[in-house]
Amino acid sequence: MRRLLCIIALLGVSSLAFADPAGDAHAEMAAALVAQADLHPTPVALPKSSAAPVHAAAESAVKRGGGPRTVNEGRRAADQASQQAQGQAQALARQAQSAASAAAGQQQSAAAKARAASHPHPGH
Q1: Best exposed site among 36, 74, 92, 96 by fewest CB in 10 Å?
Q2: What pLDDT, on the 0 to 100 scale, is given for residue 116?
Q3: Is the pTM of this model over 0.90?
């Protein structure tokens, strides 16, 4: 990979020597890219696996007899929290809808009053 980048950089630099005067902008861009090229990248570090202790802990919990019950209790608590959040979200949505409805009614009433004031009826 490093050799390939070096070859590309050398080809880019050598093409700069033969560039025509009209292509100066391209030559400048190519020179800038060669200058920015990372020819010595750092090696990739893979993440270390920490999944083994998690599995061992779950297995030992099952051996102690606390595995499925604990999982079910956690699932039940998560379901309750989800239901509470949904209920709160629905209540907030209803409040927002009623507030928007009231604001629209007030705006419509104000517009009607403004129309009535600017266009009086002939009989009044």
Answers
A1: 36
A2: 85
A3: no
